[in-house]
Every structure is written in C-alpha cells, then in structure tokens.
What we know:
With 276 residues, the protein is α/β, with parallel strands linked by helices. The chain has helices spanning 10-22, 34-43, 52-57, 67-77, 98-108, 148-160, 171-193, 207-213, 220-229, 231-253, 257-274, and strands at 2-6, 26-30, 48-49, 60-63, 86-89, 111-117, 138-142, 165-169. The chain has 11 helices and 8 strands. Helix 7 (171-193) packs across helix 10 and helix 10 (231-253) packs across helix 11. The model has no long low-confidence stretch (mean pLDDT 96).
Amino acid sequence: MNIVVAGLGIIGGSLAKAVKKYTDNYVYGMNRSPEPLNRAIECGAVDARGDETALGKADILILGLYPEAAVEFVRKNGMYINKDCIVIDTSGIKSEICPQMDKLASEFGFTFIGFHPMAGKEKNGFDVSEADLFRNASAIIVKGNASEEAVEKIASLCMNIGFGRIVYTTPEEHDRMIAFTSELPHVLACAYVFSPNCPNHNGFSAGSYRDVSRVANINADLWSELFIENKKPLITEIDTLIGNLMLIRNSIENGDRRELTRILHKAKLIKEELGE
C-alpha cells in the first residue's frame, strides 16, 4: 500500500518507522517544518516527501497531528485525497473530531476511521520516535461510518506493526475512559509538582515521587487542547478525585484511623482485583 503520514512527531514518526520496519508498504512523509521530514528520509522512516500527488495515490492517510490541526489539514487537502483512501487520526479525543471528520469524508469521498494508539513518552518530536513504541500496546478504533473491510484493513496494519490489542469503541466511551486513564493522571501530576516542597525533593524521593510526577513533563500546547475539548468528562473525573481526596483528608484530620484504614484497604483491594 501507499501510506502517507502527515505530522512526524513522536506518534507519526513512530508509526512511519513501524510501518517501514514491519511491512513492505511505501511511506510518504509530510510535515509543516522541513527538519523532521529531512531526518525521516535520512534514517529511512519514510521513502519520499508527500504532496498532493501522494495524497491522490494514498491507500491510507495517517494524521499524526494535533486534533484541530488534523481537521484543518483534511479541510485544506481533502480535494487531493484518493477517494479509496482510509484516513485515520491519532488524537486523544474523539467526540469533537469524529463528527467533523465524518462530514469531511462525506464531502470529499474518502473513508474516515477514528484511531488512538495508546503509547507515548514524556518527550516529543521525531527524534524520540521509535519503531517499537507500540509493541503490545492497545490500538483504539472508532469505526463510525466505515465499512467492515476498511476497519479490518486498519486493524490488520496495527497488528502487523506491533500492537497487541484492538479495542473498538464509540467517541463518547473513548473520551470518557481517556479522561480517567490518561488526562486525569496528567492533571494530577501537574498539580502535584506545584507543591512548594517539590524543588527540595532530591534525597527524599524514590519511586513514589517519580511515578506520580512523571507525566508532569507535559506538552502544554497539546494537552491544554485535549483537556478543553474533553472538558465535561475530565471535569467529572477531577470532581470525583477531589471528593475521594477529601474523604482521605477528613479521616486524617479527624484522627479516625479506623475509617482511614477502611479507605486504604478498599483501594488496595481494587488495585489487587484489577491487577495492572
């Protein structure tokens, strides 16, 4: 197949590298700034520079772009995209993106499938991308209006490049669950490092500090967009967290060891039952 990857950051770059490492597909790269694209060509992550002609030959177009930028790219270039092409985004929100993409797919004649690879790093950019970033990771697919054949083509590509599991969902369920599993931990990490004690953690910290603070090394532009566009589910999760924190806080303040032990033991049981 001819695959075009638009946006060669950590996700787009890693997908391009994975496709080249594990399949025989031909990869075109497109990027707003030339430096990542030049490096992608030099290291063999892409075979050639993408343009309108490449979009016209594309069997799959992967949008490794921020959500709003992905929509704008398709709006601007939709007239060039092959009518038989399957377009997938890689964004961490779906309720805001999928309806717009479905409308553009209907207007320009291509097929759109929502896609979210559950993998990443604290650092960003092509230089930290890697072919095995998705090894055994989950690939979330939002089918939308796509045919079973198109969905199977994307699912097969995912498994071929190292994903370990395909999860099928709706935009609403995706955003509700991602608010809990991904966005809330980033909110918590950022709030955590605002403590006045944070600058003095050296010598007093080990795994707990590292685990909680890790994702505070955040791409502020991207995550602020994700947070606001998924505000309702995320605020619900934040409010739930605040309520649970208050239960623990009040037990500590009241010196109620019995209640505090009950709360902590309940949390331990939940974690043990769920495993990882």
